[in-house]
């Protein structure tokens, strides 16, 4: 379609009531909407486009529990850059018809891979508004945006029983929150020794080491990203065959060397949801002048479960904390948060100066405290969710996820062909295929085929995991939509389909 310019009559109608009402229908569908290939011409159409987008989103979400969780063969139609654009109406039509059906239902109730949250109504609505207002929340000239971010962080700190000295900023996810925590820890360790790593570089602080029992791979990646190096990680042995760090072993490692040290406490390991003893680690960190970073990407929200809150004892003593909102808080991607008691040290790592920056005077620019110079108002969906649902509503989601995990764990325990690899403590179930099912074949290969068969069945999506040297399958419950009553029967049916496929050979 060639470039069209809105007719004068359309423009005047648009200017009076914000909509095109002269195109044949009181509720213009995409097919009937005029096509414009310039955003300036299209602006009068914006109300109709947003309404059409809402309808598309509603149709997508209405079927999210019914569609295959993982679509089969995915062939996205080729897209090439047109000289003359198609216009947003045509693009929306194409999106709904040819793209959305191919996307995973990862926001749905039975996508149990990785640690995947969905988007609650409050979070989704606020996320849309985040794009609509399109504020750069990294600079303090957006006073309300920056204040709102601080309010969201304060509510998160309240939820996590953290004292007022804890401050924080939003980042894209837990990986970046780990980057912020480790970079700030390194800076602090350097300053204790009269070295400014931000100024003089990583080589100014040799012998730096990371001590952790079962760190998430993203913490190791963070060490690589900031030039600390993956090899700085020294594994602390764990208790028995659990993933919880052995405090005696950590104590020995700290006594053995006076090297500048960051301890990473894991508050909810991704495979078995093990929690390190944060309080004991904080005591050791204090005694040895080490920095304590807590990776609680999803496990932080265990604070809302009376039976689990004690797993986070000592959290307030951490120097830095990594959390994710796009996991268990069910805020859309991408949204993590980095908390700290050492804002000034953090700003010495991330500070940024240029003569075109606007000095607000009262509020410091958030870009002095995190990796990005510009970012969306990520705080808004968090702020809206926390206000909309409160401690109790969010706690209900967390509790239901754990109830689902416990029920699935009990079902697996009773299943003749499946075996739990770890007790179900929180929201993750890790199990393996029994020996009779593997039947002497390569367990990793059989597990991969099982996962593919489960995904092909469409009822649910699972991802692999391993613990104690055994290949396993993980089911992580993190979505607000998942309910034991509605979803467990389908989850069990999907797993049975995978078992049947393996039995067939
Ligand atoms: C404990 C932990 N830390 C960090 C991460 C990384 O999170 P993201 O993918 O949001 O960067 C994850 C992801 O599952 C996690 O479970």
Summarize the structure.
With 505 residues, the chain is of the alpha/beta class. The chain folds into three domains: 8-103, no CATH class; 135-207 and 215-231 and 265-279 and 299-375, 3-Layer(aba) Sandwich (Aspartate Aminotransferase, domain 2); 388-504, Aspartate Aminotransferase, domain 1 (Alpha-Beta Complex), CATH 3.90.1150. The protein has helices spanning 8-17, 39-42, 46-62, 88-99, 121-133, 143-159, 174-192, 197-200, 217-225, 247-256, 278-288, 343-350, 379-414, 435-438, 443-457, 484-504, and strands at 167-171, 209-212, 233-235, 261-266, 291-295, 320-324, 336-340, 418-420, 428-433, 463-467, 470-476.
Q: Topology as H/E string?
A: HHHHHHEHHEHEHEHEEEHHEEHHEEH
CATH fold label of the largest domain: Aspartate Aminotransferase, domain 2
Low-confidence stretches are 1-27
CA radius of gyration is 25 Å
By DSSP, the count of extended strands is: 11
Q: Could you give a short account of the major beta sheet?
A: 7 strands, mixed
Mean pLDDT: 93
Give the CATH superfamily of the largest domain. Type I PLP-dependent aspartate aminotransferase-like (Major domain)
Strand content: 5-15%
Strand order of the largest sheet: 1-7-6-5-4-2-3
The CATH architecture of the largest domain? 3-Layer(aba) Sandwich
Structural class: alpha/beta
Global geometry = globular
Ligand inventory: pyridoxal-5'-phosphate
Question: In DSSP terms, counting alpha (H) and pi (I) runs of 4 or more, how many helices?
Answer: 16
Distance between the termini: 53 Å
CATH class of the largest domain: Alpha Beta
Provide the domain count.
Answer: 3
């Amino acid at each position: 379609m060639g470039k069209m310019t809105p007719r004068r009559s359309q423009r005047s109608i648009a200017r009076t009531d914000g909509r095109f009402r002269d195109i044949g229908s009181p509720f213009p569908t995409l097919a009937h909407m005029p096509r414009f290939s310039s955003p300036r011409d299209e602006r009068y159409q914006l109300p109709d486009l947003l309404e059409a987008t809402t309808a598309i989103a509603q149709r997508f979400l209405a079927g999210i529990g019914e569609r295959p969780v993982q679509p089969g063969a995915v062939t996205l139609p080729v897209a090439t850059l047109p000289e003359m654009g198609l216009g947003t109406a045509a693009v929306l039509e194409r999106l709904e018809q040819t793209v959305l059906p191919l996307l995973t239902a990862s926001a749905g109730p039975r996508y149990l891979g990785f640690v995947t949250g969905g988007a609650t109504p409050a979070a989704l609505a606020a996320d849309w508004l985040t794009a609509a207002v399109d504020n750069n929340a990294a600079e303090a000239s957006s006073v309300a945006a920056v204040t709102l971010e601080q309010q969201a962080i304060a509510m998160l700190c309240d939820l996590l029983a953290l004292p007022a000295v804890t401050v924080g900023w939003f980042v894209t996810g837990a990986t970046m929150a780990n980057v912020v925590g480790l970079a700030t820890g390194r800076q602090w360790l350097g300053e204790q020794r009269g070295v400014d790593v931000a100024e003089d570089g990583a080589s100014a602080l040799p012998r730096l080491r990371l001590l952790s029992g079962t760190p998430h791979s993203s913490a190791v990646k963070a060490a690589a990203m900031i030039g600390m190096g993956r090899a700085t990680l020294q594994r602390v042995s764990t208790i028995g065959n659990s993933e919880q760090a052995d405090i005696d072993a950590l104590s020995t490692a700290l006594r053995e060397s006076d090297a500048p040290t960051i301890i990473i406490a894991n508050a909810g390991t991704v495979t078995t949801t093990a929690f390190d003893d944060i309080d004991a680690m904080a005591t050791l960190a204090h005694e040895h002048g080490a920095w304590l970073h807590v990776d609680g990407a999803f496990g932080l929200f265990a604070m809302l479960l009376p039976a689990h809150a004690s797993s986070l004892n000592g959290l307030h003593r951490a120097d830095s904390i990594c959390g994710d909102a796009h996991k268990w808080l069910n805020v859309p991607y991408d949204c993590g948060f980095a908390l700290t008691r050492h804002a000034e040290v953090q700003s010495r790592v991330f500070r940024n100066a240029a003569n075109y920056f606007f000095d607000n005077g009262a509020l410091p620019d958030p870009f002095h405290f995190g990796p990005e110079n510009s970012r969306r108002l990520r705080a808004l969906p968090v702020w809206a969710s926390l206000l909309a649902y409160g401690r109790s509503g969010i706690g209900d989601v967390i509790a239901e996820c754990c109830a689902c995990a416990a029920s699935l764990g009990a079902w697996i325990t009773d299943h003749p062909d499946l075996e739990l690899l770890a007790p179900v403590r929180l929201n993750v179930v890790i199990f393996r295929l029994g020996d009779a099912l593997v039947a002497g074949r390569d367990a990793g290969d059989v597990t991969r085929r099982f996962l593919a068969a489960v995904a092909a069945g469409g009822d649910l999506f699972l991802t692999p995991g391993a613990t104690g040297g055994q290949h396993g399958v993980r089911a992580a419950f993190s979505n607000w939509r998942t309910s034991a009553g509605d979803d467990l029967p389908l989850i069990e049916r999907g797993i049975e389909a995978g078992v049947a496929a393996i039995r067939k050979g």
